[in-house]
Amino acid sequence: MFVLILGGGKVGSTLARTLLAQSHEIVVVEQERARFDQLEPELGHRILLGDATELYVLERAGIERPPDIVVAATGDDEDNMVVGQLARERYGVPKVIARVNDPRNQAHFDLLGIAPTVSATRAIMALVEHEVPEHDLVALLELRRENLEIAELVISDGAPAAGKRIEELQLPESARLISVLRGGEAEIAVGSTELRPGDQVLAILRPGAEDELRTALVDRRGLATRLRR
Amino acid sequence: MNAIVVGCGRVGSALARKLAGEGWSVAVVDKDETAMELLPDDWRHPFVVGHALDTSILEEAGIESADVFVAATGGDNTNVVVAQVAKGRYGVEAVAARIHDPARAEFYADRGFELVSPTRTAIRELAAWATGQAA
User: Fold this and answer.
1) DSSP chain A
2) Same domain as A128, residue A82
3) Which residues from A are below 8 Å from B78, CB to CB?
4) Fewer CB atoms near the end CB (10 Å): N or C, chain B?
5) Partner A contacted by B77 (CB < 8 A)
6) Domain limits at A219?
7) Nearest CB to B75; choose among A78, A86, A111
8) What is the mean pLDDT of each run of 10 residues along chain A (229 residues)?
9) B91 at A interface, C-beta within 8 A
């Protein structure tokens, strides 16, 4: 596979090393001279110095072949968006993966049709929320292309779902429960699984069904009361 | 008419001043507050400090009621992305972006917003002047 990596920072260079170790063909484009000099002894002819949003730089890096995958991993979101548009629309690259540095820019990536995207900050936030005991619903994984997400909910004392079997719940059409984690043991959620306070439930749902799912399982008002105590 | 000018450099500040002189209401956005020094001392229009990709900054500048939007920061990529946000997300009627690189200007042509490439203009005018010397 030929992967073109734009940006030789921590993300880009680590990705380059990993792909090289798996015998893939790679080219990295880095615009800062100092960083380029650091990486050049290791990557040799596989790294180019230049601005990855300049068409002639992309073309020297082999974008016209085109690569199987272009990874836009610079530290600048505007650059990643422009490179994403160029790669897909001008050069017909079949797959573009873009790094989102500031999660607030996610909507702009979506608007310009650049997907999939990866945001380290967003991923870390989800893991932090996962560790906070009082959360009600945490989006753990977004499958944007599939238009699905995986979320975690915690069943609290007095939640509408506590003490009920899954088949008795009024779940939204566009949500299903996957598994129930209780006392460190996970089991697959089936109709006869009974939910208890403290259970951590994984659900798969269409984005937008979060509120309905909350109402069916954990009830936000119940949670607010518990937090005030 | 309501206009937003993003980027208060030599071009942005002079453009804002010109439009204000025509009686328009003009909001200027720049990430650097010292850029305001390029505007006249008696500037009475909004000057919003922040990054133009931040939607709260655009909304504070009044993008929802803007008739004209100009992206004139020093960064080509910032300008074309912000222009697409103004057009695609907020539906601003008239949007223009300044872009130095002629190759990227060509790629972004015909997307519903105006592209102004000073480099292309300079090349054209200098070539016309130089070839005119032979006559």
Assistant:
1) -EEEEE--SHHHHHHHHHHHHTT-EEEEEE--HHHHHHHHHHHGGGEEES-TTSHHHHHHTTTTS--SEEEE--S-HHHHHHHHHIIIIIT--SEEEEE-SSGGGHHHHHHTT--SEE-HHHHHHHHHHHH-TT-SEEEEEEETTTTEEEEEEEPPTT-TTTT-BGGGS---TTEEEEEEEETTEEEE--TTPBP-TT-EEEEEE-TT-HHHHHHHHT-HHHHHHHHH-
2) no
3) 78
4) C
5) yes
6) 123-228
7) A78
8) 96 95 96 96 96 96 97 96 96 95 93 89 78 72 83 86 91 92 90 91 90 82 42
9) no
